[in-house]
Write a structure and sequence with these properties.
70% of the residues lie in helices and 1% in strands. With 309 residues, it is mainly alpha-helical. The protein has a two-stranded antiparallel sheet with strand order 1-2. β1 and β2 (106-107) form a beta hairpin. The chain is globular and about 50 Å long. It binds geranylgeranyl diphosphate. Geranylgeranyl diphosphate is lined by residues 52-53, 55, 88-89, 91-92, 97, 104, 161-162, 165, 195-196, 236.
């Protein structure tokens, strides 16, 4: 498996996900809706269709391909996951959270529109994710759709991404009169597994759910997803320290400025880089049960560790 193959698969999933989201997020109301306010639909499209690597939909497509799941189903689940991811970015950029002006090289949603519209666009995208998963195009069997809904809800909510964001804000000293909650390595790992890892992990296990794979196969995907989540976050933290804002399309150096709890802050740059390397080997080991079919997922783990944006 060459990097070109991985890159071309990433590009192809990105293109297909964007066409699907463009179609799903059109201005015209669909059955059961009363009307789609134009400005809100526009803000939801702005938040989802302007760049982004589409790495999470790629994980859904690649994990689904292990079991020859029809691509249309994987793309639906990937689009739902991307809606949750994009909502989280819109809300994370708000003045009450990270207060960022730039995302994917463009003004953040609240800068382009206004705060109220950005909040509602995020709310709309979160709800829309479950609308997508509930459709028969995601899977003809309602029991499988319910499994997908439950898994995405658990990874996105209280005990997943939203919970992780709360832990992050607490560690930053947002509550308790600015008193920072100092976290040890395990504390940071839990926070990051929730805030960043949970959605990536869902992307990996989604293929197993769509295929109704065996418990062993699902456990292997879960392990791989956990490792990719860890690697993704360490790489993101390193980029915040070593990257530049122009390449990243967002402000760099914000973690240190905010005193954020990161593994780079706890371990130091060199140890964090060494950890990243060993995570790539762990990812390859987790994929062993799938043999050569998992080559693109192994390449994806390397991409995560080496990414520059
Ligand atoms: C506000 C509920 C709520 C949650 C926010 C995702 C998140 C939680 C905060 C974003 C902060 C951040 C930079 C986290 C690090 C990992 C991350 C999600 C990076 C952005 O994801 P990419 O690189 O972005 O996949 P693209 O633009 O490619 O989609």
């Amino acid at each position: 498996m060459t990097t070109e193959t991985f890159q071309s698969q990433l590009t192809s999933v990105a293109t297909d996900t964007e066409s699907l989201l463009t179609r799903l997020l059109g201005d015209a109301a669909v059955s059961g809706e009363l009307a789609r306010p134009k400005r809100l639909a526009e803000a939801m499209r702005y938040a989802t269709l302007n760049g982004g690597k589409r790495f999470r939909p790629f994980l859904v497509a690649a994990s689904s391909a292990l079991f020859d799941v029809p691509r249309e189903r994987a793309l639906m689940v990937g689009a739902a996951l991307e809606c949750v991811h994009c909502y989280s970015l819109v809300h994370d950029d708000l003045p009450a959270m990270d207060d960022d002006d730039l995302r994917r090289g463009l003004p953040t949603a609240h800068k382009k529109f206004d705060e109220a519209t950005a909040i509602l666009a995020g709310d709309g995208l979160l709800t829309f994710a479950f609308d997508i998963l509930a459709r028969p195009q995601a899977h003809p069997d309602p029991a499988v759709r319910i499994e997908l809904v439950l898994a995405l809800a658990r990874n996105s909510g209280l005990g997943g991404m939203v919970g992780g964001q709360m832990l992050d804000l607490a560690a930053e000293g947002r509550f308790d009169n600015g008193k920072r909650q100092s976290l040890d390595e395990q504390g940071v790992a839990t926070l990051q597994a929730m805030k960043t890892g949970a959605l990536l992990r869902f992307g990996c296990v989604a293929g197993g759910i769509l295929a109704q794979a065996s418990a062993d196969q699902r456990a292997a995907l879960d392990r791989y997803g956990d490792i990719v989540g860890k690697a993704f976050q360490i790489a993101d933290d390193l980029l915040d320290v070593e990257g530049d804002s122009a390449t990243l399309g967002k402000a760099a150096g914000k973690d240190a400025e905010a005193g954020k709890a990161t593994l780079v802050a706890v371990l130091g740059i060199d140890k964090a880089k060494a950890r990243l390397k060993s995570l790539v080997s762990e990812a390859e080991a987790a994929l062993k049960p799938f043999g050569a079919k998992a080559a693109v997922l192994a390449e994806a783990a390397r991409f995560v560790a080496e990414r520059k944006a």
